[in-house]
Design goal:
By secondary structure, the protein is an alpha/beta fold. It folds into two domains: 256 residues, Spore Coat Polysaccharide Biosynthesis Protein SpsA, Chain A (Alpha-Beta Complex), CATH 3.90.550.10; 95 residues, Hexapeptide repeat proteins (UDP N-Acetylglucosamine Acyltransferase, domain 1, 3 Solenoid), CATH 2.160.10. The protein has nine helices and 26 strands. A hairpin with a 3-residue loop joins strand 2 and strand 3. The protein is globular, with a radius of gyration of 23 Å. InterPro entries: ADP-Glc_PPase (IPR011831), ADP_Glu_pyroP_CS (IPR005836), GlgC_bac (IPR023049), GlmU/GlgC-like_hexapep (IPR056818), NTP_transferase_dom (IPR005835), Nucleotide-diphossugar_trans (IPR029044), Trimer_LpxA-like_sf (IPR011004).
Length: 430
């Protein structure tokens, strides 16, 4: 990063994530679990911290308590360095009795934070994606090109352009047009099948951002992608940063180049998990040169008693006893009983898969106790009558849908605490 460059980051973490329902029924999209022990928000926060950007405000809104608790427990910065902080900021209603109306309005309602810190550069990043990125390289490009605002971009197929902000550029990377989710996007230079899409990550000169936020407030606009950036195309130097040029140390040759996934739907969220499995995954979660940080883990080690396991992750505190796991991902404190079979499944915290149960192509949210002999993912009509099923056939079992059974003589399950009988929660003991 250029010397003495003062950077402040805003992470837009207020998304409802309606397309991820029912996983977002009780949590916001950035708080949705990912892989064995992470949450989606951990990727953007890790990228910023690894890029030596330590002044971070996390703007939250929708069902944010789970996210607030996660950040409090997992992202405590240095106590004695005032410039090192990750602070969660709910709507303060400082400018009237209303919630954030859009991404730009969320920053505008916290404009006093920019004015107080007086940074040179403001990074505005989304919290909804799975990727690694050295933000310093984007800032260096921003400064080198003399840009007033920069947009991180990558190619997407033309048939997906109605899901993204699409930019057109000249030979010097200057953005000549910015359109939000167009249905008639033009191909990017050098390709007949792809266009250049915004990743939702922006770098602004602080003075330019303040000017644009005040102008936006006067006009009643509220969003970066829909309003501010398109309006800046003709009045400011707006450039596109090519994400494919971003170099991450420790990336293995077998990994997919410039891996980035928008996990905004159940299908994309499900597939991204399996991109991380195997000896040579598309996206390797472990990279000591660029770690994706997770919450401190106090649970006991996982236990595996017999069974067959293929390309699977077993989270800490989980027990697999004589079961079959094929492309399965278990988070913390999951019990899989003898004879159960999991195939292409994601099982979240404190769930039990009963003896002989069979589950495939399924996401089971936390605190579920799947009965012995249950079959999920085999009868499309029956699944659709009980659960949400995506167009590609992924079944989603909401949190607590199957209430806790009595532990009986199980050596694994603790008896319920007083006052919790009948509540869909479970503790797995090592």
């Amino acid at each position: 990063m250029p010397a003495n460059r003062n950077v402040l980051a805003f992470v837009m973490a207020g998304g409802e994530g309606s397309r991820l329902h029912p996983l977002t029924a009780e949590r916001c999209k950035p708080a949705v679990p990912f892989n064995g022990k992470h949450r989606i928000v951990d990727f953007v926060l890790s990228n910023l911290v690894n890029s030596e950007i330590y002044s971070i405000y996390l703007l939250v809104q929708y069902k944010s308590q789970s996210l607030i608790e996660h950040v409090r427990q997992s992202w405590t910065m240095a106590r004695f360095i005032p410039q090192h902080f990750i602070t969660v900021v709910p709507p303060q209603m400082r400018r009237g009795p209303e919630w954030f109306q859009g991404t730009a309005d969320a920053v505008f309602q916290n404009i006093h934070l920019i004015e107080s810190i007086q940074p040179d550069i403001v990074a505005v990043f989304g919290a909804d994606h799975i990727y690694r990125m050295d933000v310093r390289q984007m800032i260096e490009f921003h400064v080198k090109t003399g840009a007033q605002a920069s947009v991180a971009t990558l190619p997407v197929p033309l048939h997906e352009c109605d899901q993204f902000g699409i930019v057109e550029i000249d030979e010097n990377h200057r953005i000549t047009q910015f359109r939000e989710k167009p249905k008639d996007a033009k191909p990017m230079p050098g390709s007949s099948t792809h266009a250049l899409a915004s990743m939702g990550n922006y770098i602004f000169n602080a003075d330019v951002l303040l000017e644009q936020l005040h102008k936006m407030h006067e006009s009643g606009d509220s969003d970066f992608g829909k309003h501010i950036l398109p309006s800046m195309v003709t009045s400011h130097k707006l450039v596109a940063y090519d994400f494919a040029t971003n170099v991450i140390p420790g990336t293995e040759p077998y990994e997919e180049p410039y891996y980035w996934r928008d996990v905004g739907t159940i299908d994309s969220y499900f597939q991204a998990h399996f991109d991380t499995l195997g000896a040579m995954p598309k996206f390797r979660m472990t990279n000591r040169h660029w770690p994706i940080y997770a919450s401190p883990d106090q649970a006991e080690s996982a236990q595996i008693e017999n069974g067959v396991i293929n390309r699977s992750i077993v989270g800490s505190g989980s027990i697999v006893d004589g079961a079959t796991l094929d492309h399965a991902m278990l988070r913390r404190s999951v019990l899989v009983e003898p004879g159960a079979k999991l195939e292409h499944c994601i099982i979240m915290e404190r769930s039990r898969i009963g003896r002989g149960a069979q589950v495939r192509r399924c996401i089971i949210d936390q605190d579920n106790d799947i009965p012995p002999g249950e079959r999920i993912g085999f009868d499309a009509e029956q699944d659709a009558s009980r659960f949400q099923v995506t167009p590609s056939g992924i079944v989603v079992v909401p949190a607590g849908h199957f209430p806790r059974r009595a532990s009986g003589n199980s050596p694994y399950l603790a008896p319920p605490e007083p006052g919790t009988v009948g509540q869909p929660r479970m503790e797995v003991l090592a």
